[in-house]
Amino acid sequence: MEFLMCIVVGILFASAVYLMLSKSLLRIIIGTGLLSHGAHLLLLTMSGLKTGAAPILNDNISSYTDPLPQALVLTAIVISFGVTAFFLVLAYRTYQELGTDNMEEMRGTESHD
Amino acid sequence: MRKTNDLILQTVTKVISFIIILFSIHLFFAGHYTPGGGFIGGLMTAAALVLLLLAYDIKTLDNILPFDYKLMTAAGLLIAVLTAAGSLLFNVPFFTHAYDYFDLPLLGETSLHTAVLFDIGVYMVVIGITMTIIQTIGESE
Amino acid sequence: MSLLHLAIVLPFLAAVFIPFLFKGLKSIHTGWFVLLVPLFLFIYFIQYLPVTGDGETVTKTFEWIPSLGINFIAHVDGLGLLFAMLITGIGALVVLYSIYYLAKEKEALHNFYVYLLMFMGAMLGVVLSDNLIVLYMFWEFTSISSFLLIGYWYDRERSRYGAQKSMLITVFGGLSMLGGIVLLYLMGGTFSIQELIGLSDVLITDPLFVPALLLILLGAFTKSAQFPFHIWLPDAMEAPTPVSAYLHSATMVKAGIYLVARMSPVFAESGLWLWLVAGFGIFTLFWGSFNAVKQTDLKALLAYSTISQLGLIMSLLGVGAAALHYDYLDDNIYMIATIAAVFHLINHATFKGSLFMMAGIVDHETGTRDIRKLGGLVNLMPITFTIAIIGSFSMAGLPPFNGFLSKEMFLTGMLSVLELDLFNLSTWGVLFPVIAWIASVFTFVYSIKLVFKTFLGKPQFDKLPKKPHEAPIGMLISPLVLITLVVVFGFFPNLLSNSLIKPAVEAILPSLVESGQEVDVHIYFWHGFQPELFMTLGIILFGIVLYSTLAKWQGVYNRIPERFTLNGLYDRGLSGSESGGYRLTSGVMTGFMRTYLVYIFSFFVAILMSTLIIKQGFVYDTSGLAAIKSYEVILALVLVAGAVTILFAKSRLTSIVALGVVGYSVALFFVLFRAPDLALTQLVIETVTVALFLLCFYHLPEISRKEERMRFRFGNAVLSVLVGITITLIAMSAFSQRSSESISQYHIDNVYELAAGGNMVNVILVDFRGFDTLFEICVLGVAALGIYAMIRYRSARSENE
């Protein structure tokens, strides 16, 4: 299972990076979304999968899965939601102001100096 | 938002959103012992509100629930910080929680925990930000 | 927190109220309130005089970061108290002077006094802290407040230039000092100076000893404007004159002196210390006095003279270190150098402070500080002239003022070098008295020039912007007090010897006291016909000759082309680093986000892969793996298919839906991995996210990939596959080997006992790791506000248009 998940995570990361390197704003945002999915799965996989019951205290159970990565991932999920929403609005405002979603046309360092 | 006039959606939403909200409140309070908590509860409530938003429009929702969600975010943050800072008054390090068991009428023996106060803060922040984001985007048209 | 700590931070606390007093009580000059602070502190510190006079010290500890060994230890001994009294005493006089110098109607007094109080507190912190890290913190505070005060008239270009220059140089020194402090900690295992002094025998054998010594000295030399770092001090004269008198002559520039004195017991066993401190000091003495002669601006002349006098004190401290090598001698002749250093420190503060105030008065009443335009003021400003002539004569080392006494002792100290037979001093040591004598001649020349060109000579009042007259009495009080001290200390030097000088010398040379030597401070006027006396006579003789022939040899100064001066070097270095930096960034920063991402990901792959290979970190362990069920494989395939669909999607709707598929599959994986909280959250979040994407849907452009050429896409594909492989390998190695047990066992064991909860994930979030959550909701709030601002700002703007 861990082996399978490693490959899945690798593919998620690869697709995410490919999308982020493209020129279209929307694809970049979707790329960041994929990247966070990959990171969440990676965190869980690294701690070992299905090592016990769900981390809800029960007197009959002695072994639980590691709760700490889960707590970290929960935080990360919510944060990535906030960041995705922010990116989305940034992209949409950029498009409205500049009339393009091509990153290459947005380069503007020279004109600002 | 585009004007929608979908009778079935609106009728179903009326019922469902209340169920979702009730469920989310259950999730919130259950969070200390079973899956749930401030994040999930807050998100669930926000999801119900988003559903209402999709079925009706922003003005209607504003009439039903006239909240300023930015204020809600701020209030939630304040509650969370004050809960954490409250422990300083009792001369214990920042963020030390306290709990005890009380005999309450109707509910029987209940455990009261300051972590719930903190979680209420989280709950409010999550609803607040989700709705702020959705509302501002919706209104911008 | 003891009263002593409160005294140190009192100026900071008082600074908080200054803006309110300035705004609220317009009719009273804010300076009157400020004056109370140094006055009170001065009186407070007087009570320590009998304590240190008996050779006792007072140490009060306030725990700050005890786990790192950083505590605010206030340590009052002779040296610290001497500086504290200088800081508060001169501080009170300077504040009094500034009340008349800065008009309350025109100036931003609330800024000025806040900076000044900040400086005062920082300086007290420097001289009274025993912990080096705390000392460093206050040290940088003095740099910052000095920066703010030099740039007080920030609309002047020269002010900003001077402020930046002083900041760059002193903070550079401060940072290297921090490096030295860290090295000392590595060697001795403590930040406490007193403990380090006890360890000095061990430290000297450590290989890190020399680097630590150099770094600490760098900090001291930049702060005390020693050659070649002196160039910031003349430019710092753009500050208001009270500031120049206070920071840039009496106190802040002496912080470096203080540090050298304070660290002497730690380092002084080494010959390198003696050579560097004495060598740089004596050369700075010469260079400063030589350059002072050519200045035509009153304050610039005083600035160079300050540089030179600082060099003088520094060289005395260096030579005084030799005393430590002879702690078996009964009559230690090298101790005289340290005594002279402390004595001259006090004298310099008195005469230079009054001279700066004199220059401020001349500037204030005539409108110029240019010596070429001044002259003949003696009849119009008799009191100011008195101040000037006493101060200058003291500076030149003429009797009967205090400068004469310390100058004689200085010459004695330098002559004593001739008798040293360690560290090759027997061959090169002869240079010390020679350079000292030459520098003293120049000192004499510029001191005379200062008075004679300003107050005597032909009056040329038509060149002055203002009609000159004597200053108001309030402005004259402070310099008069100082100049009275110059005379009093001149006639009764032994007033100071047991109360201030002796305890300070004992603090600089503690090992001498331990070995039972008596620090015997007796300052005489008349030594008999000793070499020092003839040297002084020679100084006066040659000085008069040089001064009267000044016009003939002044051309020497123009021989050095601007290009090769230190200032030219500094300016070119600064502009060079600016343009170089600009060229570098404009080469790297293309303004195209993909380029930056390529940098990031390439480094990511390169660093992680090379670490994996070099450390042979890749391990794959198949034992203890979870079983794979068929539906899990199917779910994985759905997830991968979703991700790949996005890559090739031509429409935005397909992309968004595919992203949703990926998200929901991840949620199902969370279910399989026994993470119910995660699954719930992920499900709701995914729903809201898709709703968000759809909300923005109409505003976003269709995905067009026409402009992406094949080569572009191929490069991206290679890089992304490399990133994917790296991640996979790291993930495999990560779960295959554990260097330590998971800390979560603690959370599992204590979830009920400590937190009275059952859901471990939630308990970790709200209780065990509540800080994470607190900061997380802060981030979320910021993101929501950002979104709100991005949209509303536009709306508000378009309404205005």
From TrEMBL, chain A:
Keywords: Cell membrane, Membrane, Transmembrane, Transmembrane helix. It comes from the Bacteria. InterPro entries: CPA3_antiporter_subunitC (IPR050601), NUOK/Mnh_C1-like (IPR039428). GO terms for cellular component: plasma membrane. It comes from Jeotgalibacillus campisalis. Its main location: membrane. This is Cation:proton antiporter. The keyword Glycosyltransferase does not apply. It is found in: Cell membrane.
UniProtKB/TrEMBL annotation, chain B:
The chain crosses the membrane at residues 12-33, 39-59, 71-92, 112-134. InterPro entries: CPA3_antiporter_subunitB (IPR050622), MnhB (IPR007182). It is a multi-pass membrane protein. It is found in: Cell membrane. Residues 8-132 form the Na+/H+ antiporter MnhB subunit-related protein domain. Keywords: Cell membrane, Membrane, Transmembrane, Transmembrane helix. One of its GO terms (cellular component) is plasma membrane. It comes from the Bacteria. Pfam families: MnhB (PF04039). Belongs to the CPA3 antiporters (TC 2.A.63) subunit B family. PANTHER family: NA(+)/H(+) ANTIPORTER SUBUNIT B, NA(+)_H(+) ANTIPORTER SUBUNIT B. This is Cation:proton antiporter. It comes from Jeotgalibacillus campisalis.
UniProtKB/TrEMBL annotation, chain C:
The chain crosses the membrane at residues 6-25, 32-50, 70-100, 112-128, 134-154, 166-188, 208-231, 243-260, 272-290, 302-326, 332-351, 377-398, 430-452, 473-492, 533-553, 596-618, 630-649, 656-673, 679-700, 712-735, 773-791. Residues 129-419 form the NADH:quinone oxidoreductase/Mrp antiporter transmembrane domain. Keywords: Antiport, Cell membrane, Hydrogen ion transport, Ion transport, Membrane, Sodium, Sodium transport, Transmembrane, Transmembrane helix, Transport. Residues 713-797 form the MrpA C-terminal/MbhE domain. Gene3D superfamilies: NADH-ubiquinone/plastoquinone oxidoreductase chain 6, subunit NuoJ. GO terms for cellular component: plasma membrane. It is found in: Cell membrane; Membrane. Pfam families: MbhD, MbhE, Proton_antipo_M, Proton_antipo_N. It is a multi-pass membrane protein. Residues 637-702 form the MrpA C-terminal/MbhD domain. Its main location: membrane. GO terms for biological process: proton transmembrane transport; sodium ion transport. Residues 65-112 form the NADH-Ubiquinone oxidoreductase (complex I) chain 5 N-terminal domain. InterPro entries: CPA3_Na-H_Antiporter_A (IPR050616), MrpA/MnhA1/PhaAB (IPR005663), MrpA_C/MbhD (IPR025383), MrpA_C/MbhE (IPR046806), ND/Mrp_TM (IPR001750), Nuo/plastoQ_OxRdtase_6_NuoJ (IPR042106), Proton_antipo_N (IPR001516). GO terms for molecular function: antiporter activity. Belongs to the CPA3 antiporters (TC 2.A.63) subunit A family. This is Cation:proton antiporter. It comes from Jeotgalibacillus campisalis.
